[in-house]
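Researcher: I'm preparing a figure for a lab meeting and need a structural model of a single chain. I don't have an experimental structure, so a prediction will have to do for now. The sequence is pasted below. Please return the structure as tokens so I can convert it later.
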Amino acid sequence: MHPIFLEIGNFSIRWFGVMMAIGFLVAFLNLKYQAKYCKIDQQIVSDMLIWILVGGIVGARTAYVIANWATEFSAHPLSMFFVHKGGLIYYGGLIGGIISSFIYVRLKKQPALPIADIAATSLPIGQAFGRIGCFMNGCCYGKVTDSAIGVEYPVNSSPWIEQVNEHLILNHSKCSLSMHPVQFYESFGSIVIFFCLVFILRKQKFSGVTASCYLMFYGLLRFAMEFFRGDPRQQVTSINTAQVISLAMIGLGVALFGLSFLVMKKSNSSDKKLA
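Model: Understood. Here is the structure written out token by token.
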């Protein structure tokens, strides 16, 4: 872990921001490529990506601020705008991005499902880089483990401070206990999802399949990853809030698949009547 990418005097660029920027660029290039392949106006999706970026950042930061208001922001409200220091919740960003892109698509009177399909392929590849940024920033860390692939965090990192407060290590310990590199687990899983979605996009018989598969695949991945997370989680009975949202995401994916299938059947029926 090393949160600072570049530091000149009092000015610093953090790895979290660098990886977010790389993730956005790769997602943008993929979106343009998939739009060309699917014969969708590339200018439309390029403009939509700006809406997704703004809506995603606002949504992700808003969710983080709400979840951590009492502990981080109540004493220093202006710090809620310091996004470059990290502090984003993915599900908030996903919701914000979906809302902003839906508004854009409606304003432009574009078909929602085909655009949702190509956008879905860009989400996991962007997430893969974002999670690497989380690792470099020392957030979203895993549980303590004896595994050979465990990682240790340095003094004054979030995991180190958490373990000192929980009396798992002494305050003069040189590093944290070994922990699951859960950020890399999710990054690898997101890359696998990306390739699966690109394959599905090429093979799907009707619009909406790829988008629904993203919701189901990522929901399953995130639900599983939460069992390895070691940072403070908000519990809802035996599972946490993120896992509840993951289950809702899976359900939404199933519902979208069913809706897309019905739209396809209705469209085919109409075509037969016209014929």
